[in-house]
Design a protein that fits this description.
By secondary structure, the protein is α+β, with helices and mostly antiparallel strands. Helix content is 59%, strand content 6%. It is built from 23 helices and six strands.
């Protein structure tokens, strides 16, 4: 029998496979019964490899190999060693999959090319997975296969089981792979018939070719996920559809912010991506995942945890205690909604942000003492639901303000917010259409009024007057936002379903 393990090549500095008799393997000379039938095992990186690691990280050609005790070999994960994005991803996920028996190797490795039948110089269009059972998977199929091996990857695996989704995922994978932005892919495109131009025309064409798909890709989550949720509307309870649509928009926004952060900073902590998507409600991917944006330790963690726990307790009392004592169903529904907001937005989400900050991750709470706001701009921009509002500010308001001015940008941003809330509130309730949009248009009027000359003369942006005006505009017409049909058709049935009524 023969043993294959990886060593670094002095010539290419790309991980290769060296073939030696199994009896000469480092360590004891006994044969491991867990070794796969084709004789593939993994050894640890040598000292010489470690000495070259810094240079290899710069070039993207790094040997990825860690010793994992008691890891049963299950297969290889092959990636494009000339693509810095692929290499960075392999480096980040190396230990995660090594614990599950899968080890990374570049597709450029000679024996890999021979085993997969790849011709020298042929374009590497997809990653591949080769299992010890000789199962060969590529592209989206490989991603789905690996997602099943990780607990936080199961949503993707289950989503892929829906009819028609595999073809959609495969097209999405191939599109992303073709637009990775790697130099060797660009050169290949040029050699395959892309007409070469000079001067300004060439630059403009290249910019159009590369920027248009990159601009569209971040928005695919917000387009695809809510669209899929719409198909389920008639097959579930109204309250369940409300949570489904809210989750679809939430993860669509997560995908949008993650993609934009990746475009701006390639050196993100990819091992924190599951936490960003599933364990934090914020939308600032750059701060959360940026390796150079660590936060200072929490000054008073016990105090912050106590306050968050108190809000969770108060929300639970309103939702499961006080609401059932109120005879008027509409009022009971409002108490239940307030309890849900306290329990989730002010309690659990705040607790999660505290935990991340204790761990050194820059995760700000999404609620920041809204009662202290003296202007509507401060209320919506800094204190209430900072996750969504910061997203609207960065992606919608600021670009529009430069193009059409701050007044029109303000109206547009609040109009979009109203339409999004229609999807989560009026659509599940199947009534009350237009009221959430009217509520947010009123907020835009209040923001513009406070910034106007009249608002300055009336001191609507300062001290007590500003605070009263802000609370009147934000809280006074709240029944437009959470209108009676929503309370009756969605909130009350949900409270009954969870035993709160």
């Amino acid at each position: 029998m023969k043993n294959f393990w990886r060593v670094n090549s002095d010539l290419t500095e790309i991980t290769e496979i060296k073939e030696e008799p199994y009896a000469n393997r480092p360590g004891d000379g006994t044969q491991d019964s867990s070794r796969p039938r084709d004789g593939l095992t993994v050894a640890s990186r040598s000292g010489r490899q470690a000495s070259h690691l810094s240079h290899q990280q710069r070039t993207g050609n790094i040997p990825i190999c860690h010793t994992v005790k008691s890891a049963v070999f299950r297969g290889w994960i092959f990636y494009d060693g000339h693509c810095h994005y692929c290499t960075a991803a392999a480096k980040q996920f190396d230990r995660l999959f090594a614990r599950r028996g899968f080890y990374f190797l570049p597709l450029q490795t000679p024996w890999v090319r021979e085993r997969l039948g790849l011709q020298p110089g042929a374009p590497l269009e997809e990653m591949r997975v080769l299992t010890k059972e000789d199962q060969d998977l590529g592209g989206a199929a490989a991603i789905i296969f690996l997602a099943r091996k990780i607990w936080w990857g199961w949503p993707l695996y289950l989503f892929a089981q829906l009819p028609g989704t595999r073809r959609m995922l495969d097209r999405a994978y191939r599109w992303i792979a073709a637009h990775r932005g790697c130099a060797h892919i660009k050169r290949r495109d040029a050699l395959c018939g892309v007409p070469l131009m000079s001067g300004t025309k060439r630059a403009a064409a290249g910019e159009l070719h590369s920027s248009l798909p990159v601009r569209i890709a971040p928005w695919t989550g917000l387009i695809v996920l809510p669209s899929l949720a719409l198909f389920a509307q008639n097959h579930m309870a109204q309250w369940a559809f409300m949570w489904l649509m809210a989750g679809a928009i939430f993860f669509g926004c997560k995908w949008l912010t993650f993609w934009r952060a990746k475009q701006q900073d390639a050196d993100l902590l990819l091992n924190c991506v599951p936490g960003y998507f599933f364990l934090w409600a914020g939308m600032d991917a750059g701060s959360f995942l940026g390796s150079h944006r660590r936060t200072e330790p929490v000054a008073h963690p016990s105090r912050d945890i106590t306050f968050a726990a108190a809000k969770i307790l108060l929300g639970g009392l309103l939702l499961f205690g006080l609401a059932r004592l109120i005879a008027n169903q509409l009022v009971a529904g409002w108490f239940g909604m307030i309890g849900i907001i306290l329990l989730l937005h002010f309690g659990l989400f705040d607790l999660a942000a505290i935990a991340w900050r204790i761990a050194g991750i820059n995760a700000a709470p999404i609620m920041n003492a809204p009662i202290k706001a003296t202007t509507l701009s401060e209320f919506w921009g800094k204190r209430w639901n900072g996750a969504f509002n910061q997203l609207v500010l960065n992606i919608l308001f600021r670009p529009l303000a430069r193009a059409i001015g701050p007044v029109r940008a303000t109206l547009t941003a609040f109009l979009v917010s109203g339409l999004i809330h229609e999807l989560v509130i009026s659509l599940p309730a199947r009534a009350g259409y237009g009221l959430p949009t009217a509520y947010f248009l009123l907020q835009s009027w209040g923001v513009i009024a406070q910034r106007s000359n009249v608002g300055r003369r009336l001191q609507l942006r300062h001290s007590l007057r500003g605070r009263i005006f802000t609370m009147l505009i934000a809280a006074g017409p709240a029944f437009w936002l959470f209108h009676p049909p929503f309370v009756r058709n969605v909130i009350l049935p949900f409270m009954k379903a969870i035993g709160a009524l």
